[in-house]
Each structure stands twice: as structure tokens, then as C-alpha cells.
Here is the input.
Amino acid sequence: MDDEPDLPWYQVWLTVFSYIIILAFSYGADFWATLTRSSSMFSHRKGYAPIFSDFEAFWTRRVYRRIKDCWDRPVGGVPADWIELNERYTPDYGFTFVSTGKKQRCLNLGSYNYLGFSGVENNPTLEKVQESIKQYGLSMTSSRSEVGTTKIHRDIEIRMSKFLGKEDCIIFGQGFSTNHSTLPAILGKGSLIISDSLNHASIVTGARSSSAKVKVFAHNDPKALEAVVRKAVVQGQPRTHLPWTKILIVVEGIYSMEGEICPLKEIIEIKKKYKCYLWVDEAHSIGALGPDGRGVCDHAGVPPEDVDILMGTFTKSYASVGGYVCGSSDLIAALRQSTYATLYSSSLAPGAAQQVLSSIEIIMGDDGTDMGVKKIASLRENSNFFRNGLIERGFQIMGDKNSPVIPLMLYHPSKIAEFSREALKRNIAVVVVGFPATPLLMSRARFCISAGHTRKDLEWALNEISEIGDKLLLKYGNESYR
Here is the structure.
């Protein structure tokens, strides 16, 4: 990323100093607890090494525990545009939580309900989902390669390949395992993976699980990518300097923590120039980008045949679970016989599969209505309205126009929890993220916008968030990073 935060030096210093204070007092508390043996948090089985590393355990017990109420909030209703949360409190600074038995109705700005399909009221997919459960049951209780494939599964694969302009498609029961199990299946010894530095953990673990060599390039930087590719082509494999058997570039359509869209046209130019393969993860961009919701290819105006492998998940725009890989018929045929997720993991549950199929039909317009087109347009308009509203109110915002993922920069560690708590007091459910999930200086709140949100709800939320920003001194500037 070329653009750096335009944060005054004193704010940077205060953020770093805040972490120094946190660490100093936390280590001091640990030292005192060790001397007085007043804490059982250090205990592990006698004669055994600790399961967790010292720093992981330290960070959890001294930092995360005290603000744990900002995460893992139990949900008491449907995660649609509004959501019900079960109220709770902690009497012992995060060790335990006690339910009050009450529910709190909040505007949902945290779920990946991009096209608004997760609701129950007036949901056009609900009836068919219920019928599929009656016909096929709750679970296939088998892998796809055994007796876990129904007509619904094949219909999804046929429609997804048609929707994305590919020869064939294979679907999986879990989004994370789509990357994690597929990358090792197509990449072996002598292969090279060139991965964006901010790629999702499923890509990282999938790459590490393969026997391929992995190189990383600076986030969303085509020049850095070309430099890595050129060097890899010239030098070849380590020690032997033999040519790589294959080189795969792996990027994401929308980066989930930054809200940034990949520069697909420039990446494709590099891929063609050096004869590399290209894998695009569309977990957050499928259904959310492009005039027809076909993802980043649709958004960038490039033909899908320029991307060798299109991967995505059904957990966002489709309001279901699972994932898919679209590509050539030869590739998909090989994956059906080689991916662990196909051979050993349970197949996508019939109800979840029908939810995907019904959503695809609506998005493609095969249901005979223009509901899909309207949802895609509504998501784009809502995202840009909310993004512009935050910028106009003085917040620093990351990400690109048209992205439904909108990070608001918090920076200071103390403001991570306070922003979440203040938002909850005002009946707004948000996601906050800090170190070590982000770089030290880049703590943020991440909003996810939905086509189901009304303009009235978003305007109200903007005003409430603006008041929080005034209270917590979060208005660092009037321009976004990009």
C-alpha cells in the first residue's frame, strides 16, 4: 500500500507510549504474582512444558482478558441488518461472564451480510431452504466423494461456473478449508507461491501446508510483485537454479481487514508477461463488486479467462457456509480426486446448499425478478454513502470506493475497547481489531455494510458514531487513506 496514515507525530508517539505503559504494568503484575504465588494463571501440569508460548499467554491474561467483553458477544437472534445480543456482564475483569437474561437490539455493522439474505422477514430464499431440509435432511453425514452429493450441489457448481465464466466449479463445506486444502492439492515440490503480504490466514496456512516455496510481495503493489516474479524467474529454484515447475500468484479481490480492492488489471499484465498462474480469492468481493455482482473481474472490466483460478466463499453475499473454486474442467476434475476437503470433510448441508443456490438464482436474475440487481446496487450505494459520511465527519478511513468493508482508524489501544463499548451503549454492534491482529499503530473498527440497511439507519449510525468520535478524540483528519 503506497499511502501511509497521515497521523501527527505526537499521536504516533502517544500510541507507542500507551503500549509501553500497558506492557510495563502487565509485566509488573506478572512479576508480583510470581513472587507472591497469588495467581493460578501460570499453572500447567508438573513436568510438562507450557502449551502456549510465554507471550501468547501473557497477552491473553494481561491485555485481552480485560477487554474481552468487546468480542465473543453471544447472539440472541437473526444476524440481519438489526441483531439481538444477549446482555452480559463480568464481575471479575473478564475471567467469567454472567448473563442478565435480557436482550439488546442493535444495528448490525459487523456481519458479512452484504446482500441482506440472512434475514427471515420477506426472505425469498427461506421457503426453498425449508423444503430442501424436508427432502434431504439436516446433514449429508458424508464427504462429497462418497455419498454427500445431491442435485443441489451439482446445480450450484453448474450455476457458479456459468456465473463466473468458467468451465467448471467445485464446492466445499467450509470457506477456510477451500483455500487451506486446495492450494496443497495443486502445488508441490518445485512450485512457487507469490502471495500478497496481507492475504487471509486460510491462504497462508494453505501455502505453508503445501511443499511449495512461498515468497511475499508488498500489499497491493504491482511493482513489488513484478520485482519478486522477475527475480524468481531469473534465479530459479534455490541451490539448483532449475526453473520453477509452476509459479502461482495469489491475491484477494477485497482485503477483509483493509477494505482495499486488488489492482487486478496490473496483476494480470504481470501474470501474462511472465507466464504465471493467477489465483484470486473472492471471499469478500463475489456478489459485492461489479455491476452484476460477479466480483473483482466484473469490477475491473477484465475477462474471467484472464484469471486461472477464481476462489470464493458462500459465507458473505450468499448468507450461507462453504466455498468454491472455479477454473478449467481439467483443474476441477483433478481437485475432485485430490483435495482433502472433498475426500474427508463433510459435504455442504442441504439447507445451506439450497440457500446458496437460491441466492445465485436471484443474483443472476434467474428467479424472474430484478431483486438481485437492486440488492447489488443498494449495497454499493449504502457502502459509498456510509464511507463518505464518515470522511465528512472527520474520521480517517481505509479502503476503496464501492467496498462494503470500511475500516475506521482508532490507533490508540485504549480506544479499541472504549469505541466498542460506547457503540454498544448506543445500540450499535461493531467489530474492533488491534495488535497483534493488525500492525501496532493500525488499530481500527471495521464496519461491514449490507444492502439490507436503510438510509435512515445508516444516517442515524453516522451521527451516533460522530458523537463517539468527539468523545474519544477520533477525528484525525478529513481524508481517507486511498
Summary: The chain is about 40% helix and 15% strand. The mean pLDDT is 92. The CA atoms of residues 242 and 271 lie 20 Å apart.
